[in-house]
Amino acid sequence: MVTLNHLSVEDPDDGSPLLPEATEAVTPTSVFHRQRGITKTDSREFFLSRKENLAFSLVLLIGCYSAILIPAYLPLKKVAVLSDDNLHPKDLVLLNQSASLLSDSCQPCWGFNHLKPLSWSAGLLDIPVFVQQDRPVPWDLSPPLGLQGSEEHLALALASLPQPGLPPSLRRDGSCRRCVVVGSGGVLHGSHLGPHIDQYDVIIRLNNAPVLGFEKDAGSRTTIRLMYPEGAPHSAIEYKKTTMVALVVFKSLDLDWLTSVITKKPLSFWSKIWFWREVVDDIPLRPESFRILHPEIIHKTEQVLQKYALKPGNTVPTLGASAVVMALQLCDQVSLAGFGYDMKHPEARLHYYETIRMATMKAQVVHDVSAEKLFLRDLVAAGAITDLTGAM
């Protein structure tokens, strides 16, 4: 083996050394490390620098994700939600009033007796609730105020109903009966009225307003769910504690849908495209659990609302207003829960089961909610109905 003890190589141009003068023996390993320019000390500093960079990158990454994701879980506008242990004094008063009402004995004919003094009450005192087979009516108005032009569709739907009229459980047999109409209003949210609502003899709900998950505020039982096809709940669970479904007819096709649901014969594709929203093909109730709301309920309600309208014109009553008039026909005492649109607070919750705001009501032109509020307010003031949530 040959060892070079003194080796120096100079650049022929400037005379600077390319390799330092070696005074000791050079092994192949030391030559290799010098060629790479890395020593043990340099290696340790290099890896320490990588750890610091990695830690800084992780902190930066977490910070960026936090800045993006945390606001997504925060509401844009804060909605006050009352906890069980922090009820507002107003809610406690309403709960006490509701409890007191239920503790008193039912008063026969209470609603009608307090309705009569109102000047326009005559039209609301005796209205058939459901369409019957044995009572043919010459319809002179089209849906939803009548059934003109839908006679054939109606005949098929009635033929599929084993019991089209008023069921024995809802007939006036001398016993006093209490009704509660559960609206979808955001005022019901946090009310804690659920256990009270479940104590009523007849509980009326509207369209697809859910029960599951909202029992604390809205109750769990349903006697009558008033709805049109596009508003029918899609979840079978929502029908679990439901006694009856009453169809509100807005078009002839609604009657075909009811016949389809009862007979289990699906509608054709061409029929379905005329609904403005996807409709359910099946409702897990027996055929005797279906009814057709008498259009006279909606017609009489519309006539009364005209007296409160600021502008003349035909507007369709909401299901809520129609349900109140229906309840007055069925029960001696009628209460409301979840009614009242407060347009002065556009950021308030519109429905108890979702976070849509009150401002969205300004975009609709089908219903005159201002006239309906005046109508219901007069019923409450006259003592014909009771407002459990205090928004009227």
Automatic annotation (TrEMBL):
Q: Name one GO molecular function term.
A: lactosylceramide alpha-2,3-sialyltransferase activity
Q: Which organism is it from?
A: Gymnodraco acuticeps (Antarctic dragonfish)
Q: Which UniProt keywords apply?
A: Disulfide bond, Glycoprotein, Glycosyltransferase, Golgi apparatus, Lipid metabolism, Membrane, Signal-anchor, Transferase, Transmembrane, Transmembrane helix
Query: Which parts of the sequence are annotated with region: Disordered?
Result: 1-20
Give membrane topology per the record.
Single-pass type II membrane protein
Compartments annotated for it: namely: Golgi apparatus membrane
Which ranges does the record mark as transmembrane?
54-74
Reactions catalysed = ganglioside GA2 (d18:1(4E)/18:0) + CMP-N-acetyl-beta-neuraminate = ganglioside GM2 (d18:1(4E)/18:0) + CMP + H(+); a beta-D-Gal-(1->4)-beta-D-Glc-(1<->1)-Cer(d18:1(4E)) + CMP-N-acetyl-beta-neuraminate = a ganglioside GM3 (d18:1(4E)) + CMP + H(+); ganglioside GA1 (d18:1(4E)/18:0) + CMP-N-acetyl-beta-neuraminate = ganglioside GM1 (d18:1(4E)/18:0) + CMP + H(+); a beta-D-Gal-(1<->1')-ceramide + CMP-N-acetyl-beta-neuraminate = N-acetyl-alpha-neuraminosyl-(2->3)-beta-D-galactosyl-(1<->1')-ceramide + CMP + H(+)
**GO BP terms in the entry:** lipid metabolic process
Name of the protein in question: Lactosylceramide alpha-2,3-sialyltransferase
